[in-house]
Amino acid sequence: MDRANFLERPFVVWLAPYTTKRKGVIWLNKKGLIGIGVILIVIVGGLAAVFAMSGGEKPATIKQKGSDTMLELCQVWAERFHEDHKSISVIVSGGGSGTGITALISKNVDVAQASRQIKQSEIDQAIEAGVTPVEFRVAIDGIAIIVHQSNPITELTLDQLRGIFNGTYTNWNQLGGPDRVIVAYGRQSTSGTYVFFQEHVLKNENYRIDMQQLTGNSAIVSAVSGDSGGIGYVGIGYAEKASGIKVLKLKNDESSQAYSPLDKDAVLSGHYILARYLYLYTNGTPTGPVKEYISWILTDGQPIAEEIGFYALPAEVVAEELAKLG
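The structure corresponding to this sequence follows.
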């Protein structure tokens, strides 16, 4: 039989030699049962071969969303993790810590990245929705206060920083700088960095009404680098290698020592005022691919945090977080 014609024959016609027609119903005869058995063996065997060739692991996709501060870091983590675990893909998107936590509560993602801790109100919403948020510390950040490179100011006290962002100070000459209007740049309200800064610097007061709210760290770096009166706050990973800006030192008060977020020891010791953990959240204790992913981040993924410009977790913190995986 011509092979092309064989492949084009209708399935019923192809089965004809293996069937018997009785009372208008087509039944498989003995020969047909044997033939179908052979077909099933070939199909199952073929699928098994494909499964074996893929490394014996079922393909899986992890959905992740949240902090823009962590976006680049998480994207690199996802790429490197996939290189080591070919059967698992991780899709990462931003939108802000609040957006990611909301997506986790809505069960639209497997993992939420956040540059702040989950709020009690969000935990309550999660429990009501049948979600149990589990927190993992995955890296350390020091929020950097940046100004234009031409600004002679090199350090600020916490009160001075608060005064800039609540509107008390409007000109740099009030702080010993040039006669230049202060232009404040910050994040949007869904940002974890926006919330962290409001809680730890503004003491939950409102931001100045004329602060320009931008959608990402890179946008703030770009704005400040082009504005001689500009000041903004970003994750250290976005400030370390940026051009056109200067990172300020911070101190608790006039009599205190000032520290820079570029000083790893100062950040890890907590001497730098705006040091913070970066987090991942899951719905319940993770299992399967999500467990593998977070375990990898806490081990092989830690040097990548340093590579991107953040700081790796101390060994004792890594041990505590790995223990949560069971």
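The two ends are 61 Å apart (CA to CA).
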